Amino acid sequence: YRIAQDESEVRFHINEILIGNPTEVIGATKQVAGDFIVNFSDPPASQLGEIAINARTLKTDNEFRDQSIRGQILQTGVAENEFIRFVPTELTSIATDPVGVGETVTFDIVGNLTIKGTTNLVTFNASVTIESEDRISGTASTTILYADYGINIEAPPNVSGIEDTVILEIDFVALRVDED
Q1: Are 121 and 87 in contact (CB under 8 A)?
Q2: Which tens digit of pLDDT belongs to each residue from 63-119?
Q3: What is the largest CA-CA distance in the chain?
Q4: Are 166 and 5 in contact (CB under 8 A)?
Q5: H or E element: which one contains 48?
């Protein structure tokens, strides 16, 4: 299965205090790629390939903020920072019973998340629904400390505080591809 970009989205959520008001900033992109091998008869034997997100395409509700995220915060102009990468190493808490069309499976995905050249082990909580033999959909999320990735966020004018944690989410649709 391959992620269908037009039906998928990666987001980050971070809270800040903007002009004295709590505000949730959400950045999103559809520029995400990845492949999965789903083993319906033995779900723990399923395999997830690397997930790559083009950080240069993240957008919020504010172009000034977007420029700051791409420029000073994530430094996406540097070639090695263009992509945020997640390399799964293990599926945990996944049922061993066979699954079929119409069923939803919940599990954890442990792996290495690389942002701006720094890699840390993280765990995403995931839920995947088998919509048909040719289509699966799901969501996964985790919370990170941006300082763990060498990211420093300077509060711009009118922002009196930025939370230390960031929620990372992916909603995806993946379509069956030929093995060729």
Answers
A1: no
A2: 998 999 999 999 999 999 999 999 999 999 999 999 999 999 999 999 999 999 999
A3: 56
A4: no
A5: strand 47-48
